[in-house]
Write a structure and sequence with these properties.
The protein has 10 helices and 8 strands. By secondary structure, the protein is an alpha+beta fold. The protein folds into 2 domains: about 55 residues, 3-methyladenine DNA Glycosylase II, Chain A, domain 3; about 180 residues, no CATH class. One iron/sulfur cluster binds next to helix 6.
Length: about 280
């Protein structure tokens, strides 16, 4: 019994000494965290989306303070908070152009021809690897919503087998881009309001057979406003510095509707046409 009491006392004493030692070491060698890291973490969106290239908002804040990481890498940060962060760092905020995602496809289940019924995994990459999904077009949206599930801001809606970005919800983080096996999603300046919603590189007649909404490369738009379009083989794109207006688009009257405004494309495909 005495032996047990002695052992317990020795252990308690040892614990006490070690505790004091650990406490002293922690205090003596503590590394003071820069308080700006916490302040900046509070100002970042807290979505931990990784769009900036770092593990999360706190990690990004640490890199901003300690290694001069570029604040603009977070496209989800509001303009107001972006300016506050620059102020904390004693830097000029500069101008940041808001970017939004665009899905370059209009081929929903009604417009794109169906090749087969896809019954596999509910994942666009799995479908692309297995059979390419159910649509005839091998360039268009598979519509299983891998991008929508990746978006933390709920900015992508899948409707009738087509992904549609709601620009007012998109924070431009770019997280949806690399998950799309069809490489349909790009970030563009939020001021770009007109696009050709097609990504197929097939020849016009092949595309026409595969999808009613494809860009058939008739070049009607290019002939009407040459400076505002780039024809890349059988696919036309609106140039970034184009000054196309809604009225010009109406005058051009793209025969398939692939050339469209963001507002009309979003409203028509998300079933809210009246709201456009
Ligand atoms: S749509 Fe894409 S870019 Fe926009 S917020 Fe969602 S994941 Fe980010
Ligand atoms: S845009 Fe890409 S990831 Fe999104 S539903 Fe379409 S194929 Fe899938």
């Amino acid at each position: 019994m005495t032996n047990i009491l002695i052992a317990a006392a020795v252990l308690a004493l040892l614990g006490l000494v070690l505790g004091i030692l650990i406490g002293y070491t922690a205090k003596r060698f503590a590394v003071e965290a820069d308080p700006r890291i916490e302040e900046i973490t509070e100002l970042l969106p807290g979505a931990n989306c990784g769009g900036c290239g770092y593990a999360g908002c706190a990690d990004f804040a640490k890199e901003i303070v300690e290694n001069d990481a570029n604040i603009s890498s977070c496209s989800a940060c509001s303009e107001e908070n972006f300016k506050k962060i620059a102020e904390i760092l004693g830097k000029e905020a500069g101008n940041r152009e808001k970017q939004v995602a665009v899905v370059y496809c209009s081929g929903d289940n009604h417009k794109a021809k169906r090749l087969a019924r896809y019954n596999g995994l509910n994942d666009c990459r799995a479908a692309a690897a297995l059979s390419g999904g159910g649509k005839t077009c091998r360039f268009g949206c598979i519509g299983l919503g891998s991008c929508a599930r990746r978006c933390q801001f709920g900015a992508i809606e899948i409707r009738n087998g087509l992904a549609i970005v709601h620009p007012e919800l998109c924070e431009g983080c770019g997280n949806c881009i690399d998950i799309c096996p069809r490489k349909l999603i790009r970030l563009v300046p939020a001021t770009s309001k007109i696009h050709v919603y097609c990504n197929s590189l097939e020849k016009g007649p092949v595309k026409r057979k595969a999808c009613e909404a494809a860009c058939i490369a008739c070049k009607k738009c290019v002939r009407a406003v040459p400076d505002s379009f780039n024809a890349q083989g059988f696919l036309v794109r609106v140039t970034e510095d184009s000054n196309l207006t809604e009225e010009t688009i109406r005058e051009i009257a793209c025969p398939t509707g692939a050339l469209d405004t963001v507002a009309h494309h979003t409203a028509a495909n998300s079933g809210k046409e009246g709201a456009a």
